[in-house]
Structure formats: structure tokens, C-alpha cells
Amino acid sequence: MLTDTVLENAVPETEAVSIPSTRLERARYAASDARTWFRGFRRSRPFWGGLWMLVGAYFLLDMSMVPIQLVVKAGLTGLGGWLTGGTLLLCGLTTWFFPTQKLFAGVIGLLVAIVSIVVSNLGGLFLGMFFGVIGASMTLGWGPAKPRTFGRKKKVTDEAAAQDTELEEIETPA
Fold it and tell me: Which are the contacts of 98, defined by CB distance < 8 A and separation ≥ 6?
């Protein structure tokens, strides 16, 4: 059985939800939904670390843009820029779509960004290496957001403190 307070707080079924009628209102409503979704996406994963790793991968791949025929002829030495840039790209995407794997992606991204200075044209003229290291560091240091507290902090009253001590006395074995 529902209590009176639950019934009072319930939304009446007859209350109509306003449906946007004009094209502009529908666009604003869709933009608001998209902004809300993106905000949740960004806050629930190491978004900025992944973005910086993707920027670093772009510079690594851009500086090693050699036709694939030349890469095949050159062998492993021509493949270094493609491998480091591609690996950093995958690490950046992994942090976005699999945030639980942030430790793995961050460590591999950091190692690849540092190795790129030797393997890939001085790390994409140091830019790819710099952005890769920054992104991997941000990914490794990321933690889930703590819930925000609004207003004043909760004060412990004497009555609540007395109840807590009573509970502690009951729970502790003699």
C-alpha cells in the first residue's frame, strides 16, 4: 500500500507534457538533449585524455604520411610512424568507449608516445609525442567525478550524535 506522502508527490496522469510544436522548438529540444547526453558522456570517462591522445596520433600519422607502396619497400623502418600513430589512436578511442580500461590504454599510450620520438620522425616533430604524453597522463590520473554538494554542509545535531553513539554501543560486543 502506498503512503499518503508518496501519493501526494505522484504526478497526476492527466497532466499533459508540453510537446514542441514549431520546428525551432523541436530543434532546441533536440539540441538540449544532445548537450545533456554529451555532458554525461564527457563526465563519465577520461574524455580529455583520450582527446589529447587522438591529437597526438594525428600529428604522428600526419608526419609519417608516406604512400603505402614506399612503406612496403622500406620495410619495418617505414612502418614505425604508422604503428605508433595507429596504436596511440586506438588507445585514445579505448579511453572513450571502454573507460574501465583506462589504466591499460594510458600505460600503452604513454609508452608508445615516448617510443615515437625514436621511431616516428622525432615523435611527429615533438608535437605528437607531447600531446600523447599529456593525454596518457590525464587518462592515468582520471577518476570518476564525485557527486556535487549544493548548499550548506549538513550539521550534526546533538540528537543525531546521541543516536550514533547509542548504535555504536549496541553494535560493539562486550
Answer: 105
CB 153 within 8 Å of CB 82: no
Residue 66, SS3?
A: coil
Beta strands of 116-174 (E only): which ranges? none
Q: Give pLDDT, residue 42.
A: 87
Asked if pLDDT for residue 8 goes beyond 70, the answer is: no
Quick check: is 153 in a domain? Answer: no
Q: At what angle do helices 47-63 and 102-119 cross, to 10 degrees?
A: 20
**Start-to-end Cα distance in the chain:** 41
Q: Which residues contact 134 (CB under 8 A, 6 or more apart)?
A: 52, 56
Closest CA to 91 of 60, 131, 135: 135
Q: Can you tell me whether residue 44 is helix, strand or coil?
A: coil
DSSP 8-state secondary structure symbol assigned to residue 165: H
Residue 104 in domain: yes
Residue 34 placed within a domain? no
For residue 32, the one-letter residue type is: S
pTM of the model: 0.67
The answer to whether position 14 is within a domain reads: no
Which residues constitute the domain of residue 74?
45-141
